[in-house]
Amino acid sequence: MTSYERVMAAFSFQKPDRLPRFDSFWPETVHIYRQKLNLPPNTDLADYFGNDLYVAVPEETPFKKVMLAQNGDEVIYQDGWGSIVRERHDAKFREMLEPAIKTYDDLEIDNENGKLWLPASDPQRYISFCRVVNAQKEKSKAVFAKIGGLFIRSTFMRGEVNFLTDLVADTGFATALVRRLAEHLLQIALHALSIGNLYDTGIWIYDDMAYNTTTFISPRIFAQIFQPTYAWMIEKLKKAGARYVILHSDGNILPLLDLLIDTGFDGIHPVEPKAGMWLPELRRKYWEKYGSRLILIGGMCNAHTLPNGPISAIQAQAKAIISAGREGGVVIGSHSIGPDIPPEHYLAYDLVLQSHQPDHHEISSGYHQHLQ
User: Fold this and answer.
1) Is the omega angle on the peptide bond into residue 270 within 30 degrees of 0, that is, cis?
2) How many degrees, rounded to 5, is the angle at CA 28 between CA 27 and CA 34?
3) What Rg, from alpha-carbon coordinates, does the chain have?
4) Where are the beta strands (DSSP E) in 27-171?
């Protein structure tokens, strides 16, 4: 099977020749692994380790970025989400000084403040996107298009505290913002599907709605404000021809999972063990409850198991996920591979995948020697 065929088989709950893989590598990780594994400087780790899936990103921001002031290493600018922010080059976080959305008037196409929602059809949004899509298709990868989600992008435009307060104190305003944002993001997704010819795969929606313990929003708030609009978006995407719509959310989304399935999402990622999302258990429980309605992508722990080991724990976790996914419905991987994960730990994980999935060497071979 090619990577594309392998992912599509798993997504269709058919038995793939081996479990598909999906990991993303931090730039710092790429540098470390290339050095320690003595790899050529242009080595793509996703290809080297046999990734089967790729998520391509169009430019989705609704506004132009505008520089407003600079004082030494501090800059103030209007970002692509329309908010005024302050940032320093050596800081890990930035400060929102003024949100883009303060009143209902700010939701208009061309409001009195002069902020114009840029059209989703602008070809400039998709130049890099198309280049990446074509390159990954040439490698026979299963390529999806990414858009941001309704919760996280609303916080970008309204501010986290403001939006969380709106969800309780001004649900009408919060709902109006979510719907306006959905109209924009839906058009980005539809254009990405068309320009990239990705109807046979679909859309990946990134919407971090949870932390390790539970969700940022209650099931009641999700059902009242987000579910109707997400259902509308998914219906439009499916009607346009998108085969799958996948949700990415960090953290423990178990309180919302039944609602998410009912809304129309086909799968979830990254299924983080550190947040109580143990993939083999979810595979058993939701197969019994829903059958082939929930694709699980991820499962490996990048917070404890992969960084800290021991090797036996890494092997046991990978084998359990492989076993859960042998008949389809599972793609193995992690949220991301950071520099805190030693190369020898990732290679041990990779060796388990090789030994239990003999067709892996159709993509890459020989790197197991680094373990010796």
Assistant:
1) yes
2) 90
3) 21
4) 53-56, 66-71, 74-78, 84-88, 95-98, 142-148
Tokens describing residue 138 = 């040439």
Q: From 43, 17, 16, select the one nearest 32 (Cα to Cα).
A: 43
Q: What are 144-171's pLDDT values in tens digits? A: 999 999 999 999 999 999 999 999 999 9
Q: Is the dihedral of CA 140, 26, 250, 59 positive or negative?
A: negative
Contact (CB, 8 A) for 93 and 226: no
Tokens representing 104 are 């209902």
> 357: pLDDT confidence band, cut at 50, 70 and 90?
low
Walk me through the domains of the chain, giving residue ranges and CATH numbers: 3-62+100-371 (3.20.20.210), 64-99 (no CATH)
The residue assigned the tokens 């419905």 is 329
Rounded-to-integer distance, Cα 282 and Cα 294, Å: 9
The encoded tokens of residue 50 equal: 């046999």
Give the C-alpha separation, 251 to 247, whole Å.
Answer: 12
Q: How many helices (H) does the chain have, and how many strands (E)?
A: 14, 12
CB–CB of 360/50 below 8 Å? yes
